[in-house]
Design goal:
The protein has 166 residues and is of the alpha/beta class. Helix content is 38%, strand content 18%. It is built from 5 helices and 5 strands. α1 packs parallel to α5.
Length: 166
């Protein structure tokens, strides 16, 4: 009989830098789909033990809902898939540094590891504008910054350049 771990005690699989880059490529692909739908190109992928739990992109413009950021949508989908609000053993890949709302959701879902591409000096809540890990909260995710940073930043720059020309 195989021993099962409760969700909170499951061993954590830490991806290699090459795997981080590959998962970020998937986040970039979904971010591009947001841009094609005229939404801000941010993509998020939730991965656990090498398995994709959720893939989402920003949908604020399409749904006219302020909370429909890629991270929130990916967290919601992953919670549904796992059947609970905690996401232990999960890495969340995001093309843009999470904002305060999304960083709060990451902390509340107990996601142990966040990998993001581009920093966000205007709204980034994991180091650029502020760092929620500096506060005495009950959970602090490990942060890996700058994975495929140039591609993530270039996608955002191109989107906003095109918007300004309209």
């Amino acid at each position: 009989m195989t021993e099962r771990y409760p969700l909170s005690a499951q061993p954590f699989y830490e991806p290699t830098p090459g795997e981080d880059a590959a998962w970020m490529a998937l986040a970039l692909e979904t971010a591009r789909s947001a841009a094609e739908a005229d939404d801000i190109p941010v993509g998020a992928v939730a991965v656990r033990n090498g398995e994709v739990l959720a893939v989402a992109c920003n949908m604020r413009e399409r749904t006219r809902c302020a909370t429909h950021h890629a991270e929130i949508l990916a967290i919601e989908e992953a919670c549904r898939k796992l059947g609970g609000w905690r996401l232990p053993g999960t890495t969340l890949y995001v093309t843009l540094e999470p904002c305060p709302m999304c960083a709060g959701a990451i902390i509340n879902a107990r996601i142990p590891r966040v990998v993001y591409g581009a920093s966000d000096p205007k709204a980034g809540a994991f180091g650029s504008l502020l760092n929620l890990n500096d506060f005495p909260l009950n959970h602090k995710p490990a942060l890996i910054r700058g994975v495929r940073e140039r591609e993530c930043a270039d996608l955002l720059r191109a989107y906003f350049r095109k918007k300004r020309l309209k």
